[in-house]
Amino acid sequence: MKIFQQSFKFITLAVLVFLSTSIYAKSSNEGEGQVSTKKEVEEYILHHIQDSHDFSLFSYTNDEGERKHFGFPLPVILWTSEGLVTFMSSEFHHNDDGHVIVEKDGQKFAKIHSKIYELESGASEVSFDEDHHAKNAHKVLDFSITKSVVGVLFVGLLMFFWFSRLAKQYKNKQIPTGFGRVLEPLVIYVRDEIARPNIGDKHYRKFTGYLLTVFFFIWILNLMGLTPFGFNVTGQLAVTACLAIFTLVIYTVSGNKDYWMHMLWMPGVPVLIRPVLAIIELAGAFLIKPFSLLVRLFANISAGHIVVMSLIAIMFTLKDTLTVAGATGLSLVLSFFITLIEVLVAFLQAYIFTMLSALFIGMAVAEHDHEHEHDENGHEIPDAEDVRENFI
Amino acid sequence: MEPVTYNLIGAGLIVIGAGIGLGQIGGKAMEGIARQPEATGKIQTAMIIIAALLEGLAFGALFLGK
Fold it and tell me: Which Pfam families match (chain B) (predicted)?
């Protein structure tokens, strides 16, 4: 019975992975014959990497030459010079090059490369200059519920549901049941392996909440990026920048006296070097640390998505040399194993982001004891505690 | 040469540098683990942190060069 269950699970997994690749493949099979395959593949990858205003699962051209899209529209919320404007993204009819104009209360809008432009008064259609920039339209403040926003809200609700349920179970029965049993070891892992060793026994409790939130948020969104829904939330610069700014604010606000002292006026080095070190430390704390956090997550996830989609695109690029069956088989095998690696990367990137956040917070709240005795030459005499620690 | 080609050469150099760095980190960590298998956990954590820092640097360079 157990073997049956396990093999059933394996088959379900395999079918899911196969389905996801075949759905990806479907959405790339666009406009065959008119455009070159290379350009088509580039466009298809770029389209996936970008955020979009509608949630489209796949599309195809039927026998009458009509484009059919499967998915659902999302609300567009704009703040223009004349106030709030809202409509559904289906009014653009999946057009992305500015040819479909939506008119609301005398204002005209067009969507060009997933960005919404407002046409200037009097213009009836968008005209472009040589660099393909719109000449008579300008961008507006866009608060739309885009695909990424849907992803973020979904994960927020999911985490709220899971963790409030887990907390309730701890209050009632001590031992979690159901999905809580999957979450408990992860929570304990983040607390005991990431928060406690890096922040220190005294302060770690205060920051564990943030670290857990950030860990599960990034991890679940990374995993969602591997499903056929094609979310690419942690591969959006805005999302990763926001997460990095959270960490920046937390370690800047909770930094103690020693932290600022070591940053602005480093003790124990010649006075002339101190201003130089202060500049380096300030640049490190306010620019390099957050920048490395945001770029690492963004680049890893985007690169992973590009690799998976390029391997799926082998189906089309090598169709003529390897025949359809050969190209599909090659693409299936390669993308299957890359997807397995991506599952690892999804966890690793969440771990690294949390780890480095904990490390930076730990640097800011570390307590240096200046109570050590000094001998006549000014050297520190280690106390018994330090000596014992060296031997353990 | 077109500017795009220079970008690609730069990307190649970055990847060579990052590869050498990651190889050093991984190799030394392996040696450390072989010498002291009981410290595997600590060595792995430190290895991942340093690899992540290096990776951040390489990605930053790739990103700015793009």
Answer: ATP-synt_C
- A335 and A229 in one domain? yes
**Nearest residue in chain B measured CA to CA from A360:** B49
Q: Is B21 inside any structural domain?
A: yes
Contact between A325 and A72 under an 8 Å Cβ cutoff? The reply is no
Enclosing domain of residue A332: 148-365
Q: What total of structural domains would you count in chain A?
A: 2
Instruction: Give, as one character, the DSSP assignment of residue A375.
Output: -
Chain B positions in Cβ-Cβ contact with residue A291 (cut-off 8 Å): 60
Q: Residue B59 and residue A300: Cβ atoms within 8 Å?
A: yes
Quick one: closest CA in A to B41, which residue? Answer: A193
Q: Which residues pair with A104 in a beta bridge?
A: A107
pTM here is: 0.80
Listed by number, the residues of chain A in 95-134 with a beta carbon closer than 8 Å to a beta carbon of chain B are none
**Cα separation, A57 vs A49, whole angstroms:** 14
Q: Are residues A186 and A250 in the same domain?
A: yes
Provide the number of structural domains found in chain B: 1
- What is the tens place of the pLDDT at every residue in A111-140? 877 778 887 777 777 777 766 777 777 788
Identify whether B16 is part of a domain: yes
Largest CA distance in chain A: 94
For B55, the domain range is 10-65
Cβ-nearest to B48 among A293, A300, A352: A352
- Do A231 and A116 share a structural domain? no
Gap from A193 CA to chain B (nearest CA, Å)? 9
Contact between residue A221 and residue A234 where contact means Cβ atoms under 8 Å apart: yes
Contacts of B53 in chain A (CB under 8 A): 292
What's the complex ipTM?
0.77
